[in-house]
Every structure is written in structure tokens, then in C-alpha cells.
């Protein structure tokens, strides 16, 4: 069965190469998903975090590039660019949340030190 | 069927081997190198401990990029897959750190709660202790006050008893104060028949009252002094005065006065209080005096 899947995957790839991806289009769902990921990152405040804002900017640039590639008929490259945009947007969001959690933990630790000092 | 499988497998393996051979000389693209580094960092960091699912996704993504590199070399697709793999690794790392931060925050909050709970309990214990001390002090003050009141009342009672006793004595005998001593003078006419040292019955009644008054008033010591007038021989008067003093002492002791604090002395005729030339003067000289030293610190 595993061998059959490998053969199928290989055959599919060969077929795709042979056809030169003619007629393929950028999946609307993938484009929507990447855009939604960017919006989610903005909503959590990724713009205000240095590291996160870098990835947010990359995501936006890659989204623009994907649109441009799609217009030029480079659907496969456009899809790859959307994957990159999606990942950068998700990473921007994760970094923002991590930074918030770090800040909350630092505040709690500081308060614990204060309370401990007061208890002595 | 098995034979067909074998044939296809050999085709796939030989094809892959050919691609590997083609790529072996080309160095991996920078994206793949970064992805490997990012994955290693994530695996050895918090993601490895706290975000295994994300790390697994990153591993799969890196595997796809590696495979693409092996299969196709430095193509755009390889670079894209490596880029995604690097981001997956960074995502796993961020999530691992997020979970670590949440854990630290939780620990700190638990510590704060524990300390605050302890502080609350200690404050409560201090409050209870303070309340108990205040209550104990209040009771002690009340007890002291009560004791003072009792002592004051007892002192007042004793003073009243002493005063009443003295007043009673004044009604039955001549009482005078000399320095700190009280001197009670009993007429010899009332106590004894002439020339005798035996108490008359009426004398006993009077001495009963005197004894009771002395017991009530309290005293340190009493000296019973016998005195006579100057009629008769000197030595006889001296002996008579001593015998009369002894008789009074014995009677007072028999009425409850402590024997070790009552003594008798006979002075005879040597301490007259009036001239012996008249019957009244001689009558005044025939007498028994009780010299009372009061109890130390008041009545007893």
C-alpha cells in the first residue's frame, strides 16, 4: 500500500511537471487564510512588537508578491508565497502572545518578590 | 502482486538515488541551513519540553524541505519549503516559550497566594493573641482592683473594730495615750478587796469586757502593772502589787490573750499618780494599769 502511494505521488509530480502547471490557479481559500492570519496578528498587536512586526511586514510583502505572481500567471510560485505569508503571520501572532506571557510572568515574579520581602 | 511491487520499488529507489547523486555536490540553500539551525534550537529549548506537537509539525516540514533538496537540489520549491520549515521551528519555539512563561506566571501567583494566605493567618493569630492579652490584662486589673477593694474594706473594718474596742474600754476604764502606747487604768477598788490579790467577781466581768476589747483592737504586747498607795510596809506593797498584776494577767490569758505577749510587773508604791495624803489620792494610787503596745501595721 505504502509503495502504491509513493508511486502515485511520483506519478502525480511527473504529470504536474509535464503539464507545466498550465491552467492552475491560486486557491482562493489559501489566499483568504493568509489574509486572515495577517489580520489576526494585527489584532493581537503584532505591530507593536519589534520581532513580530518584522514577520508581519514579511507576511504583508509576501501577500502582495503572491497577488502579483498570480496576475502574471505564476500560480505555483504564488501559492508558495502564500504559504510563506501564512507562516510569517502565524509566527508574528505567536511571538506577540509569547511576549505578553513573558511580561505577565515577569510582573508576577516581581510581585512575588515584593510580597516575599514584605513577609520577612 | 508482490513481484509488481518489487519492480516499482526498484524504479523509485533508483530514481531517488539518481537525484541524490545529482544534488550531492550542490551545497544546501541558506534557507535550509537556517531551518536546520532553527529546528535544533527549538528541539533543545522549551519547545522540546513543552510543545511536542508543534515541534513535530516543524520536524515534518523540515523533512519535506530536506527531501525536496535531495530530490531537486536548490530549487525555488526547496527554498520555499525550507523557509516554511524554519518558520514552523520558530513557531514551535515561540509556543514553547509561551507555555514556559505561563508556567512561571502560575508558579509566581501560587507563591503569592501562599505567602498572602500565610500572612492572613499570621495576622489573624496576632489579632487573637492581642485580644487574649488585652482580656488577660483586663482581668488582672479587675482582680487587682478587687483585691485593693477587699484590703481597703478589711482595713476599714479593722479600724472600726479597734475604734469600737477603744470606745468600749473608755466606758469601763480610764484610757489615755502616751506616745504610741495606750494605757488602761483599772481602779484597785473595783478589782480587789483591801490587801488582797484575788479578783472580785465584778472585776472578772469588767476584765472580760477589757479582754474582748483588746482582742478586737489587737496589740503587740501588754504589760500589766500593779500599783499601791503608801500605807503599809514597802516590801509588802511591792509584793501585793506584783500579785495583783499577776492575777490580772492570768485572768486575761484565761480569756484568750496570748501568754507570751502579756507580762506582769509590780511597782508597789513608787509610782503614785496622786498624793497619798487624802483618801481620794490613795484610792487613785491603788490601781492596775495595762500598758498596751499596739500591733505593728494596725489592728490584728
Can you describe this structure in just a few lines?
Chain A is mainly alpha-helical.
Structure description:
The complex is a heterodimer of chains A (120) and B (300). In chain A, helix 2 (28-43) runs antiparallel to helix 3 (50-71), helix 2 runs parallel beside helix 4 and helix 3 runs antiparallel to helix 4. Chain A has a single domain (23-119), classed as Up-down Bundle (Substrate Binding Domain Of Dnak, Chain:A, Domain 2). The model of chain A is unreliable at 1-23 (pLDDT under 50). In chain A, 84% of the residues lie in helices and 0% in strands. Chain A has 120 residues and is an all-alpha fold. With 300 residues, chain B is α+β, with helices and mostly antiparallel strands. Chain B is 70% helix and 11% strand. In chain B, strand 3, helix 8 (234-254) and strand 4 form a beta-alpha-beta unit. In chain B, helix 1 (2-23) crosses helix 4 and helix 5 runs antiparallel to helix 7. In chain B, 29% of the residues are buried. The chains are: A mainly alpha (120), B alpha+beta (300). Chains A and B meet through helix 1 and helix 4 of A and helix 1 and helix 5 of B.
Q: Could you give the order of the helices and strands of chain A?
A: HHHH
Number of strands of chain B: 5
CATH superfamily of the largest domain in chain B: OmpA-like domain
Structural domain count of chain B? 2
Can you name the CATH architecture of chain A? Up-down Bundle
End-to-end Cα distance of chain B, whole Å, is 132 Å
Shape of chain A: rod-shaped
Order of SSEs of chain B, N→C? HHHHHEEHHEHEHE
Instruction: Briefly note the structural class of the backbone of chain A.
Output: mainly alpha
- Helical fraction of chain A equals over 70%
User: Roughly what fraction of the amino acids of chain A lie in strands?
Assistant: under 5%
Helix percent of chain B reads 55-70%
Give the DSSP E fraction of chain B (strand runs of 2 or more residues). Answer: 5-15%
Give the biggest sheet of chain A: none
Report the top-level CATH class of the largest domain in chain B.
Alpha Beta
Number of strands of chain A: 0
Distance between the termini of chain A: 69 Å
Strand order, largest beta sheet of chain B? 1-2-5-3-4
Total of DSSP H or I helical runs spanning 4+ residues of chain B: 9
The tally of structural domains of chain A comes to 1
Amino acid at each position: 500500500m505504502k509503495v502504491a502511494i509513493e508511486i502515485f505521488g511520483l506519478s502525480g509530480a511527473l504529470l504536474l511537471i509535464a503539464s507545466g502547471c498550465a491552467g492552475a490557479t491560486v486557491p482562493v481559500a489559501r489566499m483568504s487564510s493568509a489574509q486572515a492570519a495577517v489580520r489576526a496578528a494585527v489584532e493581537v498587536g503584532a505591530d507593536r512588537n519589534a520581532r513580530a512586526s518584522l514577520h508581519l511586514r514579511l507576511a504583508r510583502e509576501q501577500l502582495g508578491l503572491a497577488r502579483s505572481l498570480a496576475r502574471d500567471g505564476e500560480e505555483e510560485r504564488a501559492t508558495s508565497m502564500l504559504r510563506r505569508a501564512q507562516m510569517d503571520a502565524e509566527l508574528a501572532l505567536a511571538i506577540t502572545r509569547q511576549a505578553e506571557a513573558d511580561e505577565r510572568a515577569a510582573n508576577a515574579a516581581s510581585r512575588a518578590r515584593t510580597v516575599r520581602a514584605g513577609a520577612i | 502482486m508482490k513481484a509488481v511491487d518489487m519492480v516499482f520499488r526498484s524504479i523509485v529507489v533508483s530514481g531517488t538515488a539518481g537525484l541524490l547523486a545529482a544534488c550531492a555536490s550542490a551545497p544546501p540553500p541558506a534557507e535550509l541551513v537556517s531551518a536546520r539551525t532553527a529546528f535544533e534550537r527549538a528541539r533543545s529549548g522549551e519547545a522540546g519540553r513543552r510543545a511536542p506537537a508543534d515541534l513535530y509539525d516543524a520536524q515534518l516540514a523540515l523533512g519535506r524541505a530536506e527531501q525536496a533538496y535531495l530530490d531537486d537540489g536548490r530549487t525555488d520549491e526547496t527554498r520555499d519549503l525550507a523557509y516554511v520549515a524554519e518558520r514552523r521551528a520558530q513557531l514551535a519555539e515561540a509556543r514553547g516559550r509561551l507555555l514556559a512563561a505561563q508556567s512561571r506566571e502560575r508558579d509566581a501567583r501560587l507563591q503569592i497566594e501562599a505567602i498572602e494566605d500565610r500572612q492572613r493567618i499570621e495576622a489573624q493569630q496576632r489579632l487573637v493573641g492581642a485580644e487574649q492579652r488585652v482580656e488577660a490584662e483586663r482581668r488582672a486589673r479587675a482582680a487587682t482592683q478587687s483585691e485593693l477593694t477587699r484590703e481597703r474594706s478589711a482595713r476599714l473594718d479593722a479600724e472600726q473594730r479597734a475604734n469600737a474596742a477603744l470606745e468600749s474600754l473608755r466606758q469601763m476604764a480610764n484610757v489615755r495615750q502616751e506616745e504610741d502606747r495606750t494605757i488602761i487604768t483599772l481602779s484597785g477598788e473595783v478589782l480587789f478587796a483591801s490587801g488582797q490579790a484575788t479578783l472580785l467577781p465584778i472585776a472578772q466581768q469588767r476584765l472580760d469586757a477589757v479582754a474582748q476589747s483588746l482582742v478586737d483592737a489587737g496589740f503587740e504586747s501588754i504589760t500589766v502593772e500593779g500599783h499601791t498607795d503608801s500605807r503599809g510596809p514597802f516590801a509588802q506593797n511591792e509584793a501585793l502589787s506584783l500579785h495583783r498584776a499577776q492575777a490580772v494577767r492570768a485572768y486575761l490569758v484565761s480569756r484568750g490573750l496570748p501568754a507570751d505577749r502579756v507580762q506582769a510587773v509590780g511597782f508597789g508604791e513608787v509610782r503614785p499618780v496622786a498624793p497619798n495624803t487624802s483618801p481620794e489620792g490613795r484610792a487613785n494610787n491603788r490601781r492596775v494599769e495595762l500598758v498596751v503596745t499596739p500591733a505593728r501595721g494596725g489592728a490584728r
